[in-house]
């Protein structure tokens, strides 16, 4: 489930019909949620799935998935030449076009069965529409430029804002780049440099921090820090920190 509030998407997690917060674990998986960011970890395959705002990411270990994937990331061998693989093994020069070939049949989503319409090449992006993307290459992110290459995020940002009507979609690229920077130990406080376009307004029980722990402290004895918090916490960007560490915050 998700509810849109300003640029904030509040996510709720349910296990067998019961909402879980802030964390849940069993023999197969670990789920942590701040209400804004959701992390799913599958220890058996060392996989992590993150949902946040308008984006998600999947992190897989090379030890298990090297030369063992298909699709957008190719075979997971750090060779961009085989990225954007089609189901038949061929390489599609257009990653957005490739995505349509990997649809999963779902009777509840018949609209997904429709073939993408053939449209003429769109006109050049209007001047000024990609201004939000310039923040990625600006001094705001300068500390991270030598740590994480900025150009791929900049190009992705321009593509998104030029092909989608909601200009705030560019915030996702900035957020994604800031997230990679944070994971590399570089905290970037970037939202104040977007002229309000990527501003987040927090719920009353939370405050905004550019970086913070991925798992919030809690007084709930069901989630002791030694058994749940430490193994899966990491530095993350744009995190929401509860003012009160009650399990109901």
TrEMBL record:
Protein name in the entry: VWFD domain-containing protein
Please list the residue ranges annotated as the VWFD domain. Answer: 1-113
InterPro entries with a match to the protein in the record: Mucin_vWF_Thrombospondin_sf (IPR050780), VWF/SSPO/ZAN-like_Cys-rich_dom (IPR014853), VWF_type-D (IPR001846)
Q: Which domain of life is it from?
A: Eukaryota
Source organism: Hucho hucho (huchen)
Q: Which UniProt keywords apply?
A: Disulfide bond, Glycoprotein
Q: Which Pfam families match?
A: C8 (PF08742), VWD (PF00094)
What does UniProt list as this organism's lineage? Eukaryota, Metazoa, Chordata, Craniata, Vertebrata
């Amino acid at each position: 489930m998700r509810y849109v509030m300003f640029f904030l998407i509040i996510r709720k997690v349910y296990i067998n019909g019961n909402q879980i917060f802030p964390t849940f674990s069993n023999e197969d998986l670990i789920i942590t949620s701040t209400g804004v960011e959701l992390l799913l970890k599958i220890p058996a395959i060392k996989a992590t799935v993150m949902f946040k705002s308008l984006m998600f990411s999947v992190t897989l270990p090379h030890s298990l998935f090297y030369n063992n994937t298909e699709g957008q990331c190719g075979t997971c061998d750090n060779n961009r030449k085989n990225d954007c693989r089609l189901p038949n093994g061929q390489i599609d020069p257009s990653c957005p076009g490739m995505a349509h070939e990997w649809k999963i049949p779902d009777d509840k989503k018949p609209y997904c069965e429709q073939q993408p319409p053939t449209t003429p090449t769109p006109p050049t992006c209007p001047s000024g529409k990609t201004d939000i993307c310039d923040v990625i290459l600006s001094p705001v992110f300068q500390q991270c430029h030598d740590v994480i290459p900025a150009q791929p995020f900049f190009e992705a940002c321009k593509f998104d804002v030029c092909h989608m009507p909601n200009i705030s979609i560019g915030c996702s690229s900035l957020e994604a780049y800031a997230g990679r920077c944070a994971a590399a130990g570089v905290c970037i406080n970037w939202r104040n440099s977007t002229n309000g376009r990527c501003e987040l307004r927090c719920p009353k029980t939370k405050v905004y921090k550019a970086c913070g722990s991925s798992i919030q402290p809690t007084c709930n004895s069901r989630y002791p820090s030694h058994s749940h918090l430490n193994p899966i916490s990491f530095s993350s960007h744009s995190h929401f920190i509860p003012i009160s560490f009650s399990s109901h915050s």
